[in-house]
Amino acid sequence: MLDKPYLVGITGGSASGKTSFIQSLKEAFGSKDLCLVSQDNYYRPREVQQRDDQGQINFDLPTSINVENFLTDLENLKSGHSIEIKEYLFQNEEKTPQLICMEAAPIIVVEGLFIFHYEQIFKQLDLKIFIDANDDIKLDRRIRRDVDERGVSKEIVLYQWQQHVVPSYQKYLLPYKEAADIVINNNEHFLTSLEVIKNHFQKILHK
Description:
By secondary structure, the chain is α/β, with parallel strands linked by helices. It has six helices and seven strands, in the order βαβαβββαβααβα. It has a single domain (6-205), classed as 3-Layer(aba) Sandwich (Rossmann fold), CATH 3.40.50.300.
């Protein structure tokens, strides 16, 4: 039994493969062993989000996240309490948000664009993972994700990529890459790295 939860931070550029990686971790471990907290469900309401000079919401800024609520929920999980939060739907307003329930666990994984940028979160992390991929691969993945899953036009996706995503990555993510304990290159797959992390988690759980 761990004296305190083992806190893991996973970050990386948009469409680098964070969601797929953490989903694979969730499938490998039960809810009694691992809890996932995603930054994506802590975006502030659309009506208070910052807009650029073209009137487009910029979700790629640290200020777009309600970090206070994020930290409160994280502290509750670390203290052994379960939490509930509504799914954030971004541009897909026709979908009904689900209620996400999270149970406290020995390993808590927090993931999102700005996990390393927020000092209050960064300094708590026991393991820091940065998932990386080439820009052209990330852009192709983002186009497929946002067009197919979120109903965003390709034109808007390309605009957001050039005006929001790339500047944010260079300012708020890339400077922290060297601070990561593990960098995972996900141009083709992350299977080998996934096995390494899974084995590490098993050792943590059996301490």
